[in-house]
Amino acid sequence: MKRIANGYKGERVSRERFELAIIYVLRFAGILFFVAIVVFPFYWMIVSSLKSLDELLMRPANLALDIRKINFRAYYEVLFEHGFQRYIFNSVYVSVATLVLSVVLATLGGYAVTRIYFRGQSFMSYSILIIYMFPAIVLVIPLYVAFSRLGLRDSIHVLIVVYLAQTIPVALYMLRSYFKTIPPEMEYAGLVDGCSRLGVIWRIVIPISAPALASVAVYTFMIAWNEFLFAFMFLDTPEKFTLSRGVVQIAESVHLSKQLVMAASVVATLPIMILFLFFERYLVKGLTAGAMKG
Q1: Measured between alpha carbons, how far is residue 283 from residues 12, 158, 212 in Å?
Q2: Alpha carbon separation from 55 to 49, 72, 79 (Å, rounded)
Q3: Overall number of domains in the chain
């Protein structure tokens, strides 16, 4: 009986090991599959942008890259002959302005709905994300008509206002959840020591909320940098184009080669990828910090 029991136990352990091995293999295969889906388009953009035009025309399906034949001519033309330096400046200006205004306004608003009691506080607190539920395509037509009649449509400052309407609701919601985790006693101590409400926010709340503020900053910057629909609808003057709008302008030019389109796409994509990889841990930490009480 003991031998039978030991044999049954060994068979069960072997079966469990086999099942775990199958799970690990499937997990690795799934991760590899999704990584390939994400990495392949960017790899194809880089390879196509570094090849000469003759090689692209002769062998368009060739995904290999000969290091001895790397050609940076497409990047030079994109940056210095097609106005992409101006597009980069416009995107940086719009993204940084959206970031600063979103963080400041969301910090003040999130603190107000968390700590200051007023009539309609609960309704405002839970209706923050209502505007974010509407798809951008639903808002673009009325905004286009309104700004056109006001004569404000072809302006990057109007674009900043639109981006603020997109980013502030989520930023405010994220910060509100984080502010709830801060003990009110710390703020009361600051008020007793002579700080005003703004002093408490500046000296106590902001330093403690650094991870959440970093995640909000990265989120708003990425939204403003990558946004295309409103930039396409509102901007008409090439000198005011952002990067995403500039890439489309190059893609719509029939006399330009695919090589330039790929180089422009890399220029628009690479900075935001580097930014995300550098601040990814702060983004995840900020998004999950207020999960327990939010």
Answers
A1: 43, 28, 8
A2: 11, 14, 22
A3: 2
Give the span between the Cα atoms of 274 and 280, in whole angstroms: 10
| H helix runs in the chain, sequence order | 2-49, 53-58, 73-81, 84-115, 121-126, 136-150, 156-179, 184-192, 197-200, 206-208, 210-226, 229-234, 243-252, 258-289
Q: In terms of domains, do 164 and 273 share one?
A: yes
pLDDT 10s digits, 110-128: 888 888 777 766 777 666 7
CB 195 within 8 A of CB 181: no
List all residues 6 or more positions away from 45 whose beta carbon is below 8 Å from its beta carbon. 262, 265, 266, 269
Report yes or no: 228 and 245 within 8 Å, Cβ to Cβ: yes
Q: Do 174 and 243 belong to one domain?
A: yes
Cβ pair 139, 173 in contact under 8 A: no
- Return the structure tokens found at 162: 């639109």
Does residue 75 form part of some domain? no
What string of DSSP letters covers 166-210?
A: HHHHHHHHHHHHHHTTS-HHHHHHHHHTT--HHHHIIIIIHHHTH
- pTM for the model stands at 0.81
Please indicate, yes or no, whether residues 20 and 122 belong to a single structural domain of this protein.
no
pLDDT, greater one: 154 or 63: 154
Select from 222, 270, 234, 228 the least CA-distant residue to 247.
Answer: 228
